[in-house]
Amino acid sequence: MNLLAFDTSTDMLSIAVQAGDQIWQVQQAGGAQSSKTLLPQVLELLQQAGLELAHLNAIVYGCGPGAFTGLRTSCAAAQGLAWGSGVPTLPVDSLQAIAELARAEHGAERVMAVLDARMQEVYVAPYRWHWTGQPGQEAGTGHWQREAEILALPPHALQLPPGYVLAGNALTAYPEAFAHHTAPHYHARPTAQAMLRLAPMLIARNGLQTAMDVAPLYIRDKVAQTTQERLQTRLRGQS
């Protein structure tokens, strides 16, 4: 399978190209720079893999939740590339990519994914891995099931069910809020390589979209603080 995957939902830009069994990838500082560097890096990786856009089975993009500007960058790039090439797109939510990274690196099969949402909030959702083959086999013999809706809430309000691990970048952003949890903590961000592992299962479950369907996953309507709210946050931090 030939796939292009990228995520710009955090302060890290992650891109990967898969051609058959081989993968080319790059991870670097993202944030505001992603809008300038994403497409040039995509074209460079495709060239390294010897692929044209039209050779791809899908364009896999991080749809969110995450940084507002980052999600717009990811969706605009996915839509533009899909319109130009006629290749279908495949959205992957940021928290499921975090859960997959925790599974691949730590063997976790019950994951509370926790992503920094800024504004003193986190995006959270619980995921459980369900095997459809024999446990221990390679990815593609199971799927993730989200056990509840994705929420944006204050980090101290998180309720962790028994048997779940914590994974995400919010653990370092708000260490005090998570210190009382005794479950394992794994620092993680969504990565394009995790998205590539998820892609076959999501495609098999009819996850492909047209370019017209590309859209970010916003969990809250309010995506920025006012000047007065930012000032109040700074004053609270100084008190």
Which properties best describe this structure?
alpha/beta; tRNA (Adenosine(37)-N6)-threonylcarbamoyltransferase complex dimerization subunit type 1 TsaB; five-stranded mixed sheet; Nucleotidyltransferase, domain 5; transferase activity; six-stranded mixed sheet; Gcp-like_dom; ATPase_NBD; 11 strands
Q: Can you describe this structure?
A:
The protein is an alpha/beta fold. The chain has two domains: 109 residues, 2-Layer Sandwich (Nucleotidyltransferase, domain 5); 92 residues, ATPase, nucleotide binding domain (Nucleotidyltransferase, domain 5, 2-Layer Sandwich), CATH 3.30.420.40. It is built from seven helices and eleven strands. The strands form two sheets. Strands 6, 7, 8, 9, 10 and 11 form a six-stranded mixed β-sheet that branches. The protein has a five-stranded mixed β-sheet with strand order 3-2-1-4-5, sandwiched between helices. A hairpin with a 2-residue loop joins β6 and β7. α1 packs across α2 and α3 packs across α6. The longest helix has 18 residues.
CATH fold topology of the largest domain: Nucleotidyltransferase, domain 5
Major sheet: size, sense and barrel closure? Answer: 6 strands, mixed
- Distance linking N and C termini: 55 Å
Strand content: 25-35%
Order of helices and strands: EEEHEHEHEEEEEHHEHH
Topology:
Blueprint: E1 2-7, E2 12-19, E3 22-29, H1 34-49, E4 58-64, H2 68-85, E5 89-93, H3 94-106, E6 110-118, E7 121-131, E8 142-146, E9 151-153, E10 165-168, H4 170-173, H5 175-178, E11 185-187, H6 192-204, H7 227-238
Parallel strand pairs: 1-4, 4-5, 6-10, 10-11
Antiparallel strand pairs: 1-2, 2-3, 6-7, 7-8, 7-9
Helix pairs in contact: 1-2, 3-6
Organism: Vandammella animalimorsus
Keywords: Transferase
Domain Gcp-like: 33-128
